[in-house]
Amino acid sequence: MPPPTSDGAPHRTTIAHIAAEAGVSVPTVSKVVNGRPDVAPETRERVEAAIRRHDYRRRADTRRSTAVELVFGDLTSPRTQLLLQGAEESATAHHLSLTVSTPTHPGWLDALIGRKPLAVVATTAALPRSDLAKLAARAIPVVMVDPTAEPPPDTPSVGATNWTGAVTATRHLLTSGHERIALIAGPPDDLPTRARLDGYRAALETAGHPFDPTLVHHTAPTPSAAATAATALLSLPTRPTAIFACSDLQALGVYEAARRHALHIPDDLSVVGFDDLPLSAWTSPPLTTIRQPLRDMATTATTLAISLAEGRTPPHPNQELPTTLTLRSSTTPPSFRPRC
């Protein structure tokens, strides 16, 4: 610990204190703090451990950039464009620039730290706690967008009302007259997936329909994986008359499975998606879906991250934006009522 001052109060932790505790030179600590790669892994870990123990925060640095770093897990996803537009809207409004990166190689975090961003908005599935600790040690605030795992208590997040959206989608099919409604969900450990599954189940049971686990398939959030799952569902002795897909990309897979079975949407099978990506209006027929306000989520998260970087504590660090039903042509009352 730093030695006390003459009046008994502890000194502010400095880079020299960190260096002494880690048994390294001050320039070595500076390299770690600035994200330089030319430090041995064992040495870097000792310095990082000392930084975490002392909750060391780098003091005001006039060289810090005026950019917000937007971290994507997948640049090819159709969601990326909407999230990018939302983050850019907020950054531009605050006269800041936007940089984009992906955690695709071991040194990506050191490179990010080396750019000294004002804040980080993470739209990737999850950032390890060790990465969050490294960013916190340098006073770089992080806000998560639509996290797939429960974020740490001190990490703000912006998501959507996934449970409510799933209830709305399932109730729409129920009120249309469907009784045998299947669900194609994402990975079972995924936080939004769990909320959507719970909402689907709650809507069924509230309407007096028992939950049937054989009508639920978990898949990767891709059209091909969803097509395989939908093919299995449509091959059941008593097939579903409607399928709720937990993403628009999965709904595309349902369309393909229906084509293989010579079923017409919506006459033979109703389909509801989730996200309301631009492509959902151009499917044939246009897709009924739950609108997840992705652009607004990114705008909100970026504004929140900038506020944290400026030292303002937000009144609501964890926010959920509302989802809504977008009605198109992929749902209709069932043409027959299956024997359950």
Please characterize this protein's 3D structure.
By secondary structure, the protein is of the alpha/beta class. Helix content is 39%, strand content 15%. The chain contains 11 helices and 12 strands. It has helices spanning 15-22, 26-33, 41-53, 79-93, 108-114, 129-137, 162-175, 191-206, 223-234, 248-260, 294-309, and strands at residues 67-71, 97-101, 119-122, 142-145, 157-160, 181-185, 216-218, 242-245, 270-275, 288-291, 318-321, 324-326. The strands form 2 sheets. Strands 2-1-3-4-5-11 form a 6-stranded parallel sheet. Strand 1, helix 4 and strand 2 form a beta-alpha-beta unit. The longest helix is centred in the middle third of the chain and has 16 residues, at 191-206. The radius of gyration is 24 Å and the shape is elongated. The termini are far apart.
* Beta-strand residue fraction: 15-25%
Structural class: alpha/beta
The overall strand count is 12
Low-confidence stretches at least 5 residues in length (pLDDT < 50)?
3-10, 59-63
Gyration radius from CA atoms, angstroms: 24 Å
Report on the biggest sheet. 6 strands, parallel
Question: CA-to-CA gap between the ends?
Answer: 69 Å
Helix content: 25-40%
List the strand order in the largest sheet: 2-1-3-4-5-11
Gross morphology:
elongated
Mean pLDDT comes to: 89
Number of helical runs? Answer: 11
Order of helices and strands: HHHEHEHEHEEHEHEHEHEEHEE
